[in-house]
Amino acid sequence: MPPQKRKSSSSSAANGASSHASKRGKPDLSRPHPNSKETEEFGIVLRDFYPPEMSNERCEAYKNGTLERPIETLEKAYEDTVEERQAIGPNAAVVHWFKSDLRLHDNRGLQMAYQAAHDHNVPLICLYIQSPEDITAHLCSPARVDMTLRTLGQLQRDLSELDIPLYMETQEKRKAIPQRIVDLCQEWGANNLFANIEYEVDELRREAALVRLCAQNGIKFEAAHDTCVVTPGKLSTQQGKQYAVYSPWYRSWRAFLKENPEYLEMADEPGSNPSDARKHFKELFDCEVPAAPENKQLSEAEKKRLRKMYPEGEHEALRRLDVFLEEKAKQYDDMRNIMAKENTSVLSPYFASGALSARTAVVHALAADKGKNQAGHQSWISEVAWRDFYKHVLVNWPFICMNKCFKPEFTNLEWEYDEELFDAWSQGKTGYPIVDAAMRQLNEAAWMHNRTRMVVSSFLAKDLLIDWRRGERYFMEHLIDGDFASNHGGWGFGSSTGVDPQPYFRIFNPQRQSERFDPDGEYIRRWVPELRDVQGAAIHDPYSHEAGKIAEKNGYPRPIVVHAESRDRALERYKKASGH
C-alpha cells in the first residue's frame, strides 16, 4: 500500500449517527459503524472472517443485555442438553482437548479427563488441533505460533512418559473443527470429552455449538473454568454489576480468594494410562507436531534466537517462576518499572501458551511471601491479577473482541491513518529514543517491558492520533506473549479508550518516562545503536543538546511530532468525541 498523507476519518458522520439513534426508536443493530471503510482499508477488521465494524448501538445492546453474551450462549447450551449428557455413559476412552493450556501441572480440564478415565479404567487420549484460520483471524504472531509448537513437542514427551498419546493435526477450515472432534471421539470410542474454556467470542460460540453437537452424537463434553484464578462472573459491585475499574475489582478479587480458598487449590497432574494403551492406540503415539502455517513461519535464525530467549514448556516456566520469586520478587515493587535490567519475571510467554497457570503463579507467590504481605510479592500478585481482570471485562463486554473499545464513543474519535507516521512508529524511528528503543525490542525480541508498552501505545494514540486498533494489531502480530484480553486491555489503557479511560491526564510524556525509568539511558543504548555514543541526560532528547550532532551523524531521525502540540490536539479530539 503506498504511503498516504495525513488521512483521517471524519468524526461528524459517526457522531451524528449515534446522537440521533434515540429519535429513530428501536436502533438498527445490523447497521455497520460509519467508520467501517477505514477499519477495512487499514486491516483493522479482517473481512475474510468477520463482518464490517459494528455500530455503537450494537455495543450498547451487549451492555444492557438485549444481545446474548457468548458466555450465556455456552451456559444455555449446557442447560438445554443436561438430560442428554447425564444419560451418556463411559466407553473405550476419554479425550482431553488441549488449546491454550499446554501443561500437565495444575490443569483442571486435564485433571477431570484423567479422573474420568481412571475411574472407568480406560485410556486417556489427548488432542490438539491447529487451525491456520484461527491463527490468522486472531492475529497470532509467528513467534507465538513457534512457542506453541515447541511447547507441544515438550508436552508430547511428558505425556508419552505416562503412556498417554497426544494426537495433533491441522484442520484447514475453522468451522469444521467441532465435527472433526466428534468424528475423532467416535473413531476412538470416546464418549467423554474435556477441555478448558477460552473466553474470546469465537471460542465461546464454538464451544456452545460443540456442547450441542456432542450431545446429539452421544458424547458428553465438559469444559472447565481454568484460565482465571477467579471465574468470570463471580465478582460484582454492590449494584450487582461487573467492575469497570481495576482497584475495587482487585480488592474484591483478594477478598473472594480469602473467603473461597478452594479457588487456589492446584489440580493434580495426571497419572499413567493403563499398560495396554500403547497397544490399542499405537498410531497416536507416533504423531508429529504440526508445521507452522505458511504465513506464520520464522527463519531458522529467528527460531534459534527465540528458543534461546524463551525455552519452551512448563518445566522452564516453573523454573523461571521459582528463580524470580527467590531472587527478584522482594524488590519487584521498587524495581519493576526500571527498564535497563531484567527486573520482571518475563513469564508472560508461558501464561500465553498455557505452560503456566495464573493460579500456580499466585499460589507460589503467596507461599514465598509467607504471610508477611511484602510489597514486592503483593505487587507482583496484583500484576498477575490484571490478566484475570481483563478476561472478566472481555466476558462481560464481548464487543471488545469485535474491534471495539470499552468506550465505543471513542471509536468515533477523529483518528489519523498516516502510513508514514505509522511506519516510523512501528520501525522505531520516531525520534523519541524511549519509543524507538521499545519498538525495536519488540521487533527483535518479540517482547516488550510493560512500562514501555504503555509509553508506545500512548504515543501512537495521542502523539500521532493514529487509530489505536492498528497498534493493537501490530502488537498481536509481533508479540510472543500475545494474549487478546491483556493486549486489548493494555491498548485501552494507553489510548484511554478502555476501562477507566481518564483521557484528560493520562498522556505520557515520552521524555519524562525515559528520564524516570531509564535514567542512565542503558535501555536506549542497547536498542538504539545510533545513540550509543551519546553521554548523560542528552540520551533522552539528543536534538535539544550538542549530542544532536552525534545523532544526526549516525542517522537517527529528528522527532516526527512535537509532544506539547500533539497533547493539545489529542485533548481537543477526545473532548469532541465524548461530547464535551
Automatic annotation (TrEMBL):
<feature type="site" description="Electron transfer via tryptophanyl radical">
    <location>
        <position position="415"/>
    </location>
</feature>
<feature type="binding site">
    <location>
        <position position="332"/>
    </location>
    <ligand>
        <name>FAD</name>
    </ligand>
</feature>
<dbReference type="InterPro" id="IPR002081">
    <property type="entry name" value="Cryptochrome/DNA_photolyase_1"/>
</dbReference>
<dbReference type="InterPro" id="IPR006050">
    <property type="entry name" value="DNA_photolyase_N"/>
</dbReference>
<feature type="site" description="Electron transfer via tryptophanyl radical">
    <location>
        <position position="468"/>
    </location>
</feature>
<keyword id="KW-0157">Chromophore</keyword>
<feature type="binding site">
    <location>
        <begin position="344"/>
        <end position="348"/>
    </location>
    <ligand>
        <name>FAD</name>
    </ligand>
</feature>
<feature type="region of interest" description="Disordered">
    <location>
        <begin position="1"/>
        <end position="43"/>
    </location>
</feature>
<dbReference type="Pfam" id="PF03441">
    <property type="entry name" value="FAD_binding_7"/>
</dbReference>
<feature type="compositionally biased region" description="Low complexity">
    <location>
        <begin position="9"/>
        <end position="20"/>
    </location>
</feature>
<dbReference type="GO" id="GO:0032922">
    <property type="term" value="P:circadian regulation of gene expression"/>
</dbReference>
<dbReference type="Pfam" id="PF00875">
    <property type="entry name" value="DNA_photolyase"/>
</dbReference>
<keyword id="KW-0274">FAD</keyword>
<feature type="binding site">
    <location>
        <position position="380"/>
    </location>
    <ligand>
        <name>FAD</name>
    </ligand>
</feature>
<keyword id="KW-0285">Flavoprotein</keyword>
<feature type="binding site">
    <location>
        <begin position="481"/>
        <end position="483"/>
    </location>
    <ligand>
        <name>FAD</name>
    </ligand>
</feature>
<dbReference type="GO" id="GO:0006950">
    <property type="term" value="P:response to stress"/>
</dbReference>
<dbReference type="InterPro" id="IPR036134">
    <property type="entry name" value="Crypto/Photolyase_FAD-like_sf"/>
</dbReference>
<feature type="compositionally biased region" description="Basic and acidic residues">
    <location>
        <begin position="25"/>
        <end position="40"/>
    </location>
</feature>
<dbReference type="GO" id="GO:0071949">
    <property type="term" value="F:FAD binding"/>
</dbReference>
<dbReference type="InterPro" id="IPR018394">
    <property type="entry name" value="DNA_photolyase_1_CS_C"/>
</dbReference>
<comment type="similarity">
    <text>Belongs to the DNA photolyase class-1 family.</text>
</comment>
<dbReference type="InterPro" id="IPR014729">
    <property type="entry name" value="Rossmann-like_a/b/a_fold"/>
</dbReference>
<feature type="site" description="Electron transfer via tryptophanyl radical">
    <location>
        <position position="491"/>
    </location>
</feature>
<feature type="binding site">
    <location>
        <begin position="383"/>
        <end position="390"/>
    </location>
    <ligand>
        <name>FAD</name>
    </ligand>
</feature>
<dbReference type="GO" id="GO:0003677">
    <property type="term" value="F:DNA binding"/>
</dbReference>
<dbReference type="InterPro" id="IPR036155">
    <property type="entry name" value="Crypto/Photolyase_N_sf"/>
</dbReference>
<dbReference type="GO" id="GO:0005737">
    <property type="term" value="C:cytoplasm"/>
</dbReference>
<feature type="domain" description="Photolyase/cryptochrome alpha/beta">
    <location>
        <begin position="92"/>
        <end position="229"/>
    </location>
</feature>
<protein>
    <recommendedName>
        <fullName>Photolyase/cryptochrome alpha/beta domain-containing protein</fullName>
    </recommendedName>
</protein>
<dbReference type="GO" id="GO:0006139">
    <property type="term" value="P:nucleobase-containing compound metabolic process"/>
</dbReference>
<dbReference type="InterPro" id="IPR005101">
    <property type="entry name" value="Cryptochr/Photolyase_FAD-bd"/>
</dbReference>
<dbReference type="GO" id="GO:0003904">
    <property type="term" value="F:deoxyribodipyrimidine photo-lyase activity"/>
</dbReference>
<dbReference type="GO" id="GO:0043153">
    <property type="term" value="P:entrainment of circadian clock by photoperiod"/>
</dbReference>
<dbReference type="GO" id="GO:0005634">
    <property type="term" value="C:nucleus"/>
</dbReference>
